[in-house]
Structure formats: C-alpha cells, structure tokens
Amino acid sequence: MIHMHITAWSLGIILFFVTYSMYKSGKQAKAMHMVVRLLYILIIATGLLIYKDVHWMPMLYGMKMLGGIWVIAAMEMVLVKTSKQKATGAFWAQFVIVLLVVLYLGLRLPLGFSPFA
Ligand code: HEM
After folding, report:
1. 4 C-alpha vs ligand 1 centroid, how far in Å?
2. What percent of the chain has pLDDT above 70?
C-alpha cells in the first residue's frame, strides 16, 4: 500500500504541473484537472489505508495526514485560481512549504523509506 501511496502522490504532483502549464498556456485543461482530482482521492484513500494499520507515533502520523491534505488543498487552489486567471502566489507558497514538511515527515515515519528516522 505504501507503494500505491508513493505512486499516487508522485503522479498527482507531475500531472498537477502539467495541468497548471496547460491552463497557463490557455489550453483546455478541464479533463486533465479531473484526472488530478481523481488522484487526490487515491492519495487520501491510500494514506488512510496505511494509517488504519499503524498504532504508533500518533502525533507525527496526525501531522503527516493533515499536511498531506493541506498540500492537496493548495494544489487545487493553485489550479482553480490559475483557471480563473487570479493570483496564485499565496497558494504556491503553501504548496512548497507544506510539501517539504510532508516529505520530511513521510520519510521520517517508519514505513517505506526512512532516511530521516
Ligand atoms: C500530496 C500529498 C502527499 C504527499 C506528497 C505524501 C508523501 C508521503 C511520503 C514521502 C511518504 C513516505 C513514503 C516512504 O517512506 O517510502 C508518505 C507516507 C505516508 N502517508 Fe503520505 N503523502 C501525501 C498525502 C497523504 C495523505 C492525504 C494521507 C492521509 C490521509 C497520507 C498518509 C500517509 C501515511 C499514513 C504514510 C505512512 C508513513 C510511514 O510510516 O512511513 N499521506 N507520504
């Protein structure tokens, strides 16, 4: 399941950038945006499925999950604001900062790779 989670968020982030550049260059990006939204659901679902089997480090797992949802919220806000040609700076800042925190927490927690443990 951890590999499904890693696949889901890597693909989600890549397609997020693809969708962003499509909106930016004035292309029709609605369908791609829907694919990214489907990946949000997969990221959350795989995250929750991993979580249901762990019973340790509740504080760090709690922060990891809230952070993960925050990253997704920031991605969605960047895409929606870009599609409406509105300012996205505040959401890009949240995306970058919280993504770094979430990557750190994910790689610090015991499952999968743990270089920061
Ligand atoms: C874009 C958003 C997200 C990113 C970039 C992300 C990233 C990561 C990374 C890097 C790991 C560690 C993988 C490894 O150790 O090999 C991980 C694990 C995990 N993620 Fe996420 N995640 C995101 C969203 C979520 C969400 C929304 C949830 C929960 C609803 C969640 C729950 C978990 C759990 C429970 C683990 C296992 C932690 C461990 O013990 O290593 N993640 N995630």
Report:
1. 10
2. 100
